UniProtKB/TrEMBL annotation:
Species: Mediterraneibacter hominis
NCBIfam families in alphabetical order: TRX_reduct
Primary gene name: trxB
Full protein name: Thioredoxin reductase
TM stretches of this protein: none
Cofactor(s) annotated in UniProt: FAD
MF GO annotations: thioredoxin-disulfide reductase (NADPH) activity
Length: 302
């Protein structure tokens, strides 16, 4: 029997484990893909307080090492469901069942991908899903942001401070994101809107060299030369398998606020998987601490 069962071995989950272990709780982190989470694919992290520069993989491996040295157990299995039984919880994976007195869901999100050839191959070589993580590496260069929501608009604005030119490529001629943000971008000399256009192809074998776009109105293909492509076409939470246990919002994010409490007592949500405004490494770590301590409080019957 574990005191705290954590589903998800990203920054939020591992931070929760550190807080749980330091409070003397028996903690297990169950991770089905890769320990470290999203940040592993960031070549360099420069916005974590107190660490001027670190690779995403080094950051997450240090975090995992820290959690394990404190005694957190790790399980490399996909959690399929959480059952509530007599005030306890059972996390079921394809291999085993893990009984726990409390559960922290730290399942993260996955960035929606374009699903085109070379996209996966060139992640870290020009293709990025995080402008705030990777934008500074494109200082003085030309880049494209794909998407028309608030994330894409904000990414374009952020990148316009570093890059020589930012193409904002959106599949419709109207943005989904806030008008005021789009208006502000329009004023920027180094931002060009490429509307009603989809990405047909990424050019480059070892590094991104450009994009072949398709003008949806004329049907014509055209090329832009860029060394970075920031894909900001939405995020996909993976909480469906827990929807009978806790409430989700209409987009599938776990309904929980800054206290990380969910609709089910004893189940907590930490990091990008919950409803929140800012999905960053720092906020994932902060959630891990909050959820870890909240679980300890729950276990103490407070
Ligand atoms: P989003 O609002 O869902 O927008 C995704 C954008 O990507 C849409 O413009 C969509 O086009 C486009 N898209 C989706 N699939 C695509 C595909 N396969 N190919 C090309 N384009 C595709 O996602 P988001 O911008 O990540 O924002 C998520 C949520 O967080 C939103 O509620 C947003 O308001 C919020 N957010 C808020 C702030 C803030 O400061 N308040 C900042 C960031 C995000 P269509 O428009 O044609 O569907």
């Amino acid at each position: 029997m574990y005191d705290i069962g954590i589903i998800g071995g990203g920054t939020a989950g591992m931070t929760a484990a550190i807080y749980g272990q330091r409070a003397g709780k028996r903690t297990v982190i169950i991770e089905g893909t890769n320990f470290g989470g999203q940040i592993v694919s960031s070549t360099n992290v420069e916005n974590y307080p107190g660490i001027a520069s670190v690779s995403g993989s080094e950051f997450s491996m240090n975090l995992l090492d820290q959690a394990m040295k404190l005694g957190a157990e790790t399980v490399a299995e996909q959690a399929d469901s959480v059952q509530k039984e007599d005030g306890m919880f059972v996390i079921e994976t394809s291999e085993k069942a893990y009984p726990c007195r409390s559960v922290i869901l730290a399942t993260g999100v996955t960035h929606r991908h374009l699903g085109i050839e070379k996209e996966e191959k060139l992640v870290g070589a020009g293709v990025s899903y995080c402008a705030t993580c990777d934008g500074a590496f494109f200082r003085g260069r030309d880049v494209a942001v794909i998407g028309g929501g608030n994330t894409a608009l904000q990414d374009a604005e952020f990148l316009s401070n570093y890059c020589r030119k930012v193409y904002l490529v959106h599949r419709r001629d109207e943005f989904r994101g806030e008008k005021s943000l789009a208006e502000r971008l329009k004023e920027k000399e180094n931002v060009e809107f490429v509307l009603s256009a989809t990405v047909k192809e990424i050019i480059g074998e070892t590094m991104v060299e450009g994009l072949i776009l398709n003008n949806k109105k004329t049907g014509e293909d055209f090329k832009i030369e860029v060394s970075g492509v920031f894909v900001a076409i939405g995020q996909i939470p993976q909480n469906d398998k827990f929807k009978d246990l806790i409430k989700l919002d209409e987009d599938g994010f776990i309904l929980a606020s800054e206290d990380c409490l969910t609709s089910c007592p004893g189940v907590f949500a930490a990091g990008d998987c919950r409803t929140k405004e800012v999905r960053q490494l720092t906020t994932a770590a902060a959630d891990g601490a909050v959820a870890g301590l909240a679980a300890c409080k729950y276990l103490a019957g407070e």
